[in-house]
Amino acid sequence: MTHLILALMFLQNPSLDSASPKERQAAIEEMATLGNREAIPRLAELLKKEPRSDVRATIVAGFGRIRDRGAIPPLADTLKSDLDKDVRSQVIDSLLRLYIPLEDSGPLRTIFNRVKSAFLAPNAPVVGPEVQVDSSAKEALATAMQKDFNDDVRAEAASALGSLKASDQVPTMVAALEDPQNREHNNVRIAIVRALGQIRDAAAGPALERTLRDPNKPLVGEAVLSIGLVGHAPARPLLEQMFKTERDRTLRNKALESLALLRDPASTPLFESLLDSKEDSERELAAEGLARSKYDAHGWTTRINQETKPNVRNALAFGLATSGEINYINDLANGLDSRQAYQVEVYLYELGKFEGKMSNLYPYLKSLNPKVRGGMARVIGNIGDPSSAELLRPLTDDSDTEVVREAVAALRKLSR
Predict the structure, then answer these.
(1) In angstroms, rounded to a whole number, what is the distance separating the alpha carbons of residues 188 and 209?
(2) How far apart are CA 56 and CA 71, in angstroms?
(3) Could you tell me which CATH class the domain 15-98 is placed in?
């Protein structure tokens, strides 16, 4: 009887124990399907004894595609012990995929296929507001951030903590940022500062403010922006001084951008003085900063009609909308089909999330323009109000495939 069972097992997975790496990878591919948690123990066993790093990476990528949290223990063990840095990087990608769903069709692709992780791209996806991330996954990433012997892996682990909004790891991240032993590991510290901004926990504010005195300019630039993102208002005077006196134009612009994020009414005089600036970026950020600080923008109608730069017009429309001029939401929604789509998405998100204008966004899910329908579905999904699900669901049958993709992604965020 025992021999019969072994024979059946061999027939089910004839190539997992093959001498051919390609056959082993083909078998892994066959097992690594969404939700196939029964495959995890067998793949974990294979991972421990697999001699080839590219095959180990395929197993790790398979865990990401299965997308079951039962894979956390073997992933955490591999992140801690695998000798190949690319395999460890692949682990970080797979840990993120357990919580942030991505389109994943076609054959399994890994770093060994020269495929860059989607989580390392600009504006990379982040965890949905309703998702509970396992402490074991966050702890594994925090340990890699602190102790991995490769700086790229450490930086990727820090970035992953940002993507997972790991607020409980902020003290550990701050300690790593300020550890004298990390002074020469600037790309790790930059990744930590950027991740702290992504997490948006005010507890990181004092450490970020201290980082402004660091001699490394790229690090200071990231700290400036992160101060705005976490809302550390005590740094406002320092940021205003930086904007007024800093010779580095990039740092000046970042200081103003950070001030615009702070929502501090104390910056009102500075922003008012910049509304007529010759620099369109300064006019844009001045209007944006005033809009976030409950400024009465009813008098901006003439200003927006005379403005020629679309990015500044969007910021003025944002201010008018926050002041109750609801018709200007239409200008922002139409901007979803423009080169300024990312900018207006930010404004629409804030109007729905913080300004009580959620009900004013819903009609655009029925727009005749598919770019507007899809973009608004993405905005509403990011806001994360579960009551929006019923209004998003009809878009899963939309005639435009991109709209369907955005609606499905939004519904996933609301249901996880």
Answers:
(1) 18
(2) 14
(3) mainly alpha
The CATH superfamily label for domain 124-262 reads Leucine-rich Repeat Variant (1.25.10.10)
Structure-token match 């409980």, residue found: 168
- Please report the sign of the dihedral spanned by the C-alpha atoms of residue 261, residue 141, residue 61, residue 132: negative
Q: Cβ(348)–Cβ(376) under 8 Å?
A: yes
Give pLDDT tens digits for 35-73: 999 999 999 999 999 999 999 999 999 999 999 999 999
User: How far is residue 187's CA from residue 376's CA, in Å, rounded to a whole number?
Assistant: 35
What pTM did the predictor assign? 0.89
Q: Measure the CA–CA gap between 275 and 270, rounded to whole angstroms.
A: 9
What is the biggest distance separating any 2 CA atoms in the chain, rounded to whole angstroms? 87
Determine phi and psi for 248, rounding to 5 degrees. -70, 110
Residues of the chain by 3-state class (helix, strand, coil), percent to 5 = 75, 0, 25
